[in-house]
Amino acid sequence: MLSPRTAKTYIDLAKDKIKTGNLDDALKNYQKSLEIQQQTYGQDSPLIANTYTNIANIFHQQKRYQEAHEALEKALKIRIKCLGDSHPSVATTYNQIATLYQEQGNLEEAIKYFQMSLALNTAQINENHPAIRKSVEGLGTIKMKQGEYQEAEKFFRRSVTISPTLLVQSDKENIAALKNLAMIFESQSKFSEAIEQYEKIIDIYSQENTKEPEYLEALLKIGDLYKMKGQLDQAFSYFSRAAESYKLAYGASCQDLVPIYENIIDYYSYKGNIEESLNYLKKNLEIIMEREDKDPVILKKYYKRIGTHAEKLNKFDLALYAYSSFLELAEAPAAEENFDEKISLYLSLLGIYEKKEKYFEAVQYCQKLLGLLIEQPKLDELKARASILYEKLGDQQIKQKDYKEATKSYRESLNMF
Question: What is the pLDDT of residues 204-217, one digit of tens each?
Answer without folding.
Answer: 887 665 788 899 99
